[in-house]
Amino acid sequence: MIKGKIIAGIAVLAISLTNAYGAPFSITNVRCAGTGGATENTACTSALSSIRTEFDKLATQVNSELPDVDGKRYASGMANSVLLTTKGLTVDYASNISIFAVGGGLGLGFDPGDKGISNAFDKPAAISGIGAQVSGMLGLNLGLLPFIPAFGPIDLKKGILFVNFMSMDMPGVVDELSGSFTNIGVNIRYKAFEGMDLFFGLVGWSGVDVTTGINYSKMKVQVKAPITQTVTQTNVGGSGQNLTGTFKGDAVLGPEVGITSIPIEVSSAVTALYLLKLYAGLGADITVGSADMVANLQNQSLTGKIGTGGTAETVNADVNLDLGGSSGPDFFAMRAFLGMHLDFKVLNIFVQANHSFTTGAYGVTTGARVYF
Fold it and tell me: Which of 334, 337, 336, 325 is nearest to 359 (CA)?
């Protein structure tokens, strides 16, 4: 069933796709199509009203295999989720980078919907959007470059330049699930206030950093799965005729998101026992872009036959799928983030949690970096 395959596919992203809205599949323009002659469509015409009722039942059966999605709301949730998928992947907020850094990681984001995160855990179908990204990162200490200027009290040699990039197709873990991820960005982490070390570096404070830049993220996910449903009825409408109606087709649906954001962040970190670094910060994002919920039917057919014995007349109808919708991210959003490094001086392993106060979306990123 398509719903099971969608959930299995989205489980790769650790999120469910569905939401609670109206039925997206419909059967319309039910009509008789005879073979000619004086008795053309006699059985079909006499029972047409009852045939339409049975085809409505067939549409209900098909809808039972489709996610009930408000496409526009889901598209907005997708955009806000994707925004958080790279927070923590594009910038190292805690490492003392003297020369350069290189690393990568994975980010996930989700919009829990209007009723909040507790309801989303109890009812995963309430989730309004998901996002995922994979990214690589390079960092360079600008103090090594002799031509870096100062602008009044702002000396850019106190900054670390970060560049991130990744473009990849989704691994074929589930046959019916495909997609792609792209992100690129440039950010600068500037040391606004110097920190200090105590007890020979056993405990330390990083000072205060200000980070800004520009980032682009694109995500496309597509789920494809077959649907087959049949309705049968004897003595349709008391006509003495028997009806069989069958729908077959592939439902193809999923989000396409592309956003560009400018972050402004203030963060600080502490070191404990050399190995553990904890950091936290506040940020704001100015974001533009679009998100589309794309849905269509492929290879679809609807066949209807009514009659008795070996004689049957054909019933034709049109099928429609309305799961689409377009929206975009919130233009301005505030958020907080909290992270941890296990720092082995050259290698750090990190995890970061993100939450948007404005949109209600959550995110988590994790990965590893080598730095000198």
Answer: 334
